[in-house]
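HOLO CASE FILE
Compound: magnesium ion
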Amino acid sequence: MSSAAPDRNEVEPLIETVELRTHFRTPRGIARAVDGVTLQIRRGQSLGVVGESGSGKTVLSRSIMGLLPRNGVIREGSVRYGGEEIGNRTPKQMRSIWGREMAMVFQDPMTSLNPVMKVGKQVTESLRLHLGMSSSEAMAVAEKIFRDVRIPEPTRRLNQYPHELSGGMRQRVMIAIALACGPNMLFADEPTTALDVTVQAQILDLLSEQIRDRNMSMLLVTHNLGVVAGYTDEIAVMYGGKVVERAPTKVLFSNVKMPYTEALLQSIPRMNQPSHSRLAMIPGRPPDLVNPPTGCRFAPRCAYARDVCVREEPPLVQAETPDHTFACHFPVGSAEYHERRVELNRASTTTAEVL
Ligand SMILES: Nc1ncnc2c1ncn2[C@@H]1O[C@H](COP(=O)(O)OP(=O)(O)OP(=O)(O)O)[C@@H](O)[C@H]1O
Ligand SMILES: [Mg+2]
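Model generated. Tokens follow.
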């Protein structure tokens, strides 16, 4: 039920960040948690943001929402929503956007839901506050949303407290609250990691169905590339506060460029893998964001790195595939990559023979 003209939606991204830099004051110095991120999310588009723990995914999404902790600040760059600058707004000014325009679903519903308020009231409060509905109007809408997110027996559930619901049901309530005021943009930060695997898939299916039906945009944050594969149009891969590769989802899986992305792909758990088997982990530690290494931040851990990688930061460049950018001196497929690959294979064969 969008009132904006369609042609405007096509030319203008719903969300746009330009060279966004978010810093934190820490006892050791300034941590550059988001370090020059430029991205766009169009209306109706789902963007997956993936990367290891500490790569800046949550800080990036919280910077866009204007929900940073006290010691964090947008130091440079811009955040636009529907073409309007919002990066410099105060929390008070952002309040009219939260809920109505942008909503969020977090990892643990228990910490976001009010434990002493019935879940129905938590939905209706939001409707009354943001849309000025009366109690009875809000209750009718809440019941409908509970049905939309497939909460069985919605009338009974509306009168229950969070602790009376299962983890999956609580996450459905969170999604209902997020969708209630008809926002354009949904932020979902690891929305299913606290749930077991079958429930995870149900919740992600539900989220993507609702996003599609409502023509909403979504930023889905996760450390698991396997999770975003089926639920996003595009993927941005973060490392050390930067986007190091970005591509339409299918392209990323078929034509990966950054050895870091390739390593993340190798660490996706496979359905046919025994649950106790070890996943390929990327050796080494993520970069220190207070004193980041010069050159490519992944170089100290990259099997394909050469001298230049440690000296010079690779710029983001366009791949041969459309809408695909990456930052790497010796990407997957380059002659240097192949040369090193052959050396690595030879070394591992020799080691296997010795053992
Ligand atoms: N409140 C804070 N105070 C100081 N530094 C912070 C704070 N929050 C985040 N940071 C810094 O920002 C970096 C990125 O944090 P962020 O929470 O965005 O990581 P993430 O990619 O979401 O990781 P995870 O997968 O574990 O959720 C951290 O490594 C840390 O250096
Ligand atoms: Mg996070």
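CASE NOTES: The mean pLDDT is 90. DSSP finds 14 helices and twelve strands in the chain.
CLOSED: yes
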